[in-house]
Design a protein that fits this description.
322 residues; alpha/beta
Length: 322
């Protein structure tokens, strides 16, 4: 193997540049050349590729986003698009691919593999931390820290004006981000896609807090909660209680900003492991973080497996919020 490729695809998260940097520098350390594929699968189909060297990745470990850019592609979802991407990949001289993406993007790698024999190693990245087979994905820790910082600031206003704030965070299908953020920020409650929501019970808990002297509260709401998000929850609370509700949607702030130390180290470790897996002859594997170490798992666990929420963390959140 003389040349490998690296790409980022799907939504951006903080820590991607740390991973790209590690891929490039690990590859060069082992005597390989590196090609960066720009704009994800769309760029692959268009042959949008650039050479990468040590200078290309200097000074990027602390930067959010991705220097390779990212894009979603409807064309790649088709058989014709996948064949087009495979043809461009093989024409580039790339002999191994490091694919940094979420579960949908990693599934795209599985589709690509139907049309090329080039080995592919997947690296998980996800703000929702919902990728199967791995306890952590790049971007999750930074997003938690962003949300906690937002809640800390909102709490000052909530306390000053004696109000109830609903803070909506990302998490269409899974509540990992909402749960960990709520626990770290000391929120009074958290609403998750995995658990049932009872508005009357929420109001009863708020009443108990008020009777005990609590003058303000913060509830973290995952966007995929069954109630329909923070705005719908606010309507239902105001319909059955006297609480004055304010809403804050954290939104795309969760995606950006300098990566946390954990995401920098994790991204770097993922990148090194992916390159050395290719050199060892591995293919169609996912680099996964399990019990404090990095291991390789079949790529399909990324979208086939569904990790449960941590029951101990759920119970702890419930205990500490009362």
């Amino acid at each position: 193997m003389k040349r490998i490729g690296v790409m980022t695809t799907g939504g951006d998260v903080s820590g991607l540049n740390a991973c790209i940097r590690a891929v490039v520098r690990t590859a060069i350390y082992h005597g390989l050349q590196v090609t960066g594929i720009c704009r994800g699968y769309r760029g692959m189909m268009e042959g949008d590729m650039i050479p990468l060297d040590n200078r290309s990745v200097g000074g990027i470990i602390n930067k959010g986003g991705t220097i390779l850019l990212s894009a979603r592609s409807q064309e790649f979802r088709t058989e014709e698009g996948q064949k087009k991407a495979a043809k461009q990949l093989e024409a580039s001289g790339i002999e191994g691919l490091v694919l940094i993406g979420g579960n949908g993007s990693l599934k795209g790698g599985d589709d690509l593999a139907k049309w090329t024999k080039i080995p592919i190693i997947g690296v998980p990245k996800s703000i929702d931390n919902d990728i199967g087979g791995t306890e952590y994905a790049i971007g999750f820790d930074t997003a938690v820290n962003v949300v906690v910082d937002v809640i800390d600031k909102i709490r000052d206003t909530a306390t000053s004006h004696e109000r109830l704030f609903l803070v909506e965070v990302m998490g269409r299908d899974r509540g990992f981000l909402a749960l960990e953020s709520a626990l770290a920020a000391g929120a009074e409650d958290v609403l998750l896609p995995e658990t049932a929501t009872d508005v009357k019970d929420i109001c009863n808990q708020l009443d108990k807090g008020k009777k005990s002297g609590k003058t303000s509260s913060i509830i973290v709401v995952a966007e995929g909660d069954e109630i329909g998000g923070a705005f719908e929850l606010a309507k239902q609370i105001e319909n059955v209680s006297p609480y004055e509700v304010r809403i804050s949607i954290v939104g795309h702030m969760q995606r950006g900003g300098a990566p946390s130390a954990k995401d920098r180290v994790l991204g770097s470790s993922f990148g090194q492991t992916a390159v050395e897996a290719l050199l060892a002859g591995e293919s169609h594997k996912l680099v996964a973080y399990v019990d404090g170490r990095l291991i390789l798992k079949p790529l399909e666990v990324a979208w086939d497996q569904c990790r449960p929420l941590n029951e101990n963390m759920l119970r702890l959140s419930h205990i500490l919020s009362h």
